[in-house]
Amino acid sequence: MKKIIIALFIFSFSLQSCKESDKKDIPAEKSKEISDLSIYNLPSKWTTQDNKEIELKSLKGNVLVMVMIYTSCKAACPRLVADMRDIESKLDKKTKKNVKLILVSIDPKTDTPERLKSFAIENKMNQQPWLFLRSSEENTREFAAVLAVNYKQISPVDFSHSNIISVFNEAGELVFQQEGLGVNNEKTIEAINREAQKI
């Protein structure tokens, strides 16, 4: 009797371990697609300059070049916008279609979708590969922390903030950061083109 019970226990245990191994295979495949380091794990919702609501994971499959700005900024942000334009002008034409240039607002109260749209039009950035995003204050803070961007409101209309341009690969993993204004962007361009060629 004991032998039968032991045999049944071993048989049921082997079936259970097969089921568990089957279950483990599925997430393992998914984790290859999106790693723990991917921004596509963030559940936050964002609104574009065209007033469309998106999640960051909808951008998967593109190289993302991201910078955090606010449209009423008169100091660093115009320089950051110019730096992003300079990056765009140097992208490999063959793989540029695999790149999104994204400006994320740190001032969602002022930067409504309408304001982002008019800013995009004023700056001739209202077409591919440009994208403007805004979200809640909480989501913006969380995203800034991921990018290691610090910002602080210093007056009703002004913010002090880090000047960082971040490059993410097609899986949403950070691969390069450029810090400063008007700096040499050769390594940034190399990182973007290298990742875009992999797609």
From TrEMBL:
PROSITE patterns: PROKAR_LIPOPROTEIN. Disulfide bonds join 73-77. Gene3D superfamilies: Glutaredoxin. GO terms for molecular function: metal ion binding. Belongs to the SCO1/2 family. PANTHER family: ELECTRON TRANSPORT PROTIN SCO1/SENC FAMILY MEMBER (PTHR12151), LINALOOL DEHYDRATASE_ISOMERASE DOMAIN-CONTAINING PROTEIN (PTHR12151:SF25). This is Protein SCO1/2. It comes from Flavobacterium johnsoniae (Cytophaga johnsonae).
